[in-house]
Amino acid sequence: MRFNINELNLEQQKAVQSTEGPVLILAGAGSGKTKTLTYRIAYLLLEKKVKPSSILAVTFTNKAAREMRARIEKLLDYSLAPLWMGTFHSVCARILRREAEQLGYNKNFTIYDVDDQVRALKKVIAQLSVPQQIYSAKLIQNRLSRIKNRFLF
Question: Are 42 and 72 in contact (CB under 8 A)?
Answer without folding.
Answer: yes
